[in-house]
Amino acid sequence: MVLKVFSLYLILGISPLMAAQSLVMNEHERLDVRVSSKELNRIQVKGDRIASVFGAQGFYSLESDDVKGQIFLKVHEGVPSRFDISVVTESGRTQDLSLKVIKGEGQTLLLMPSSSPSTETWPSSSGVLPESLALLKAMAASHQDAGYKREHLSKLVPLWRDMDVTLREIWQGEELEGRVYQITNRSSHPQRLHEKQFRVLPRLKAIALEKHLLIPGASLTVYVVVSHA
Prior knowledge:
Layout: H1 2-12, E1 19-24, E2 30-36, E3 41-45, E4 50-54, E5 60-65, E6 70-75, E7 82-89, E8 94-102, E9 107-112, H2 130-141, E10 149-156, E11 163-172, E12 176-185, E13 191-192, E14 204-209, E15 213-214, E16 219-227
Parallel strand pairs: 1-9, 2-8, 3-9
Antiparallel strand pairs: 3-6, 4-7, 5-6, 7-8, 10-11, 11-12, 12-16, 13-15, 14-16
């Protein structure tokens, strides 16, 4: 068994002696994490499985471990020395991470939940349904799944003062509808968003934010799943 694990590390290009980091999850804060610029970096959540990763598209590539629910992140060449991503788990936890790129060995990050998953992240007492999760992942990756009709548009939605909310895409299905919103901070100070702020949307099933902290003039993407009934 040890030999098999060691061989798997070699196939994936990971050092068996990856530097380890253990951090307690906090959905209201962005955690600082080190990642190697040359080797694969492993990210896992204790007692949970990573479902999606959002943010900084084009800065990295991912390999998923479908057995353990962990991911392996490879930083691309020429990216900034620090960039942000958000990790979403199957049980509804969300964690924002600030990745500091270093020249050292591959890193292992173990995220440890501080409590039960927040129902504010996924508005469902039983967690995200597989159909809703699949639609969220498809929208985030811009991969149109069979059964959904994708429509592009630009419609302003009056939700908050000092922030422009624009509906960019609608994904129509028989039972579910996906929506992609762009939010731009028009104020002179940073704005922190949370999933609970979108509870005003009717028939809400699932939601994922690209990030939570929005500096003045910046934009972020919000992925929403609602039911037809």
